[in-house]
User: Which sequence fits this backbone?
């Protein structure tokens, strides 16, 4: 039985946020991946188009999610579903770190505003 300990996550920093990967192909998952996202206070988001559905569980803070131009402020315990193909931005207008748990399927990519493609290593 694969168990990934809290100390075994792989940390990645991009666009002002930290992503700590736990479940992905590198840790034995064949379909799903999951990571913890930490967004510092007053951090603007980077809008991007996602290739696969993503589900976010807000654990700490009050991050703002914008999906296809519709913004929603969230709080701990809220869950946000971003459909595949949607334009997504996650930001933290609050005064404390925001912490979110994210799940999706392996192979997620994102198209950035400049047209470039990002294949996040935590979603491989």
Assistant:
């Amino acid at each position: 039985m694969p168990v990934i300990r809290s100390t075994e996550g792989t940390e990645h920093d991009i666009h002002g946020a930290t992503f700590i990967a736990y479940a992905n192909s590198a840790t034995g998952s064949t379909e799903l991946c999951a990571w913890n996202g930490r967004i510092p206070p007053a951090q603007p988001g980077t809008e991007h188009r996602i290739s696969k559905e993503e589900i976010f569980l807000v654990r700490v803070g009050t991050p703002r999610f914008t999906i296809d131009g519709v913004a929603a402020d969230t709080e701990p315990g809220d869950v946000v579903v971003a459909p595949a193909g949607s334009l997504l931005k996650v930001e933290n207008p609050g005064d404390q770190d925001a912490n979110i748990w994210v799940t999706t399927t392996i192979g997620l990519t994102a198209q950035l505003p400049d047209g470039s493609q990002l294949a996040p290593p935590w979603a491989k």
